[in-house]
Design goal:
GO terms for molecular function: methyltransferase activity. This protein is α+β, with helices and mostly antiparallel strands. It has helices spanning 3-7, 14-27, 54-69, 71-80, 94-106, 122-133, 135-148, 160-171, 185-194, 228-232, 235-238; strands at 174-178, 198-199, 210-213, 220-223, 242-244.
Length: 245
């Protein structure tokens, strides 16, 4: 169940890129005609997205929204490197190009691992090979962008309104539903205590490795936001016994 999360550092299955591109196509920031140098084709109709499972859905949305955060930077990289326009890639696949470019730079321009069990998608394979062929030009374009804007990291390019939203979101506690079809509250508490977690009365009592039972929903647990990665690596989460709200 952790397969998609683990392979994220080496790339994703073709279906993840395809679904992320479909999502991105519907949420991307539209620009006025005069400034719209990167063409995305027609997105008047939302394309159908089919997910293999819940984890694939979550990863697809995360990848799409990551591309959205850095849409301006990614487009500038494509134009500055002369990798775009590419006349062999139709406008309808530009969203896939942008999504895969975000992932390529997130992997530090390393080659994507291909997994034997994954189903290959011709468009994803084509664009993946195309971007990797020009990885040096793209990396140089990224470096020029950072120098141009005096940016220590790509976080500089996140729009200010979105950056403030992320700061607020990152401070919010995490809510997890207990999947009572698989486990009871008592068993969850016992498991958490064995792993060093301590139950407190309310959110105001939070410290590291603490949690509280929601006051209104007895099958919901609340944790500090700082524990997100640790919680997502627990067997309770991997086995779908705790479900992130």
């Amino acid at each position: 169940k952790r397969a998609v999360t683990q392979i994220g550092k080496n790339g994703y299955p073709d279906s993840i890129y395809l679904n992320a591109a479909k999502i991105f196509q519907g949420i991307r920031a539209a620009k006025s005609t005069g400034r719209n140098l990167v063409q995305y084709g027609n997105n008047s109709e939302s394309p159908a997205v089919a997910f293999k499972d819940e984890q694939s859905r979550r990863v697809s949305y995360e990848l799409a929204f990551s591309a959205l955060k850095y849409q301006g930077l990614l487009e500038e990289m494509l134009l500055d490197s002369k990798v775009y326009p590419c006349y062999s890639i139709p406008d309808e696949l530009t969203s896939l190009l942008v999504v895969m470019l975000y992932d390529l730079q997130d992997r530090k321009f390393q080659k994507r691992k291909i997994f034997a069990e994954e189903e290959r998608v011709a468009e994803v394979q084509e664009i993946g090979h195309y971007l990797y062929r020009y990885k040096t030009k793209l990396a140089a374009a990224l470096a020029r962008c950072r120098i141009k804007y005096d940016a220590l990291s790509i976080e500089y390019f996140v729009p200010e309104t979105l950056s403030k939203q992320e700061q607020r979101t990152s401070a919010l506690p995490l809510w997890f539903w207990i999947n009572t079809f698989k486990i009871s509250l008592e068993d969850v508490i016992r498991d958490l205590e064995m792993k060093g977690f301590t139950k407190v009365e309310s959110v105001s009592d939070f410290d590291h490795n603490t949690y509280a039972v929601d006051q209104h929903c007895p099958d919901v647990l609340v944790f500090p936001s700082s524990l997100r990665e640790e919680l997502l690596n627990l067997d309770l989460f991997a086995d779908c016994k705790l479900l992130l709200q």
